[in-house]
Write a structure and sequence with these properties.
alpha+beta; four-stranded antiparallel β-sheet; 5 helices
Length: 183
Amino acid sequence: MIRNLLAERLKLAFHYEKAEKGIFELAKAKAGVKLKPSRAGLPAQDVPPWVPVDSKFGKDGCPVFEAGASGLLPGPSGCYRWVAYNLSMEEIAHTLSAQVGRKVVDATGMAGRFDVDLKWSIDLGWALERAGLEKEAKELPEGPRGPSLPKALRDQLGLELIPKKGMVDVVVVDHVARAPVEE
């Protein structure tokens, strides 16, 4: 639907090409995998992790989910939590891709389905300052500092992200027209 709208209104034309870019391989950590196999009887993830869900926040500022609920949410002080059930390694890699901003491919060789409960922190003040939003950064409450996503993956799940080069799909814009101005 969005493609059609962009094609109609802006005469947008594009195609995909393969290009070598930075990716991450999701691998087993040297200390061993701590990821838990999915318990029998739990349904597959029915809500994608990027869909907002209602949540409360614990004393550490991290989201707290109801029993059996899943999702991926940030807390008010930069603490993220991802709870999911019955996921394949490919689904885990796909969700991590959205969090790290580049493609993550499964290189673990692990079959089966797994449950995830992962907590990590980002420095929101630093991110806002980098985006030129110093005022907003100063208004943030001081929050607990936790592990970065790569450290949390290694310590909590026994997985690691290894930077590599790999082929990814890149959008190449062939044509775009100015947006019509309505008066």
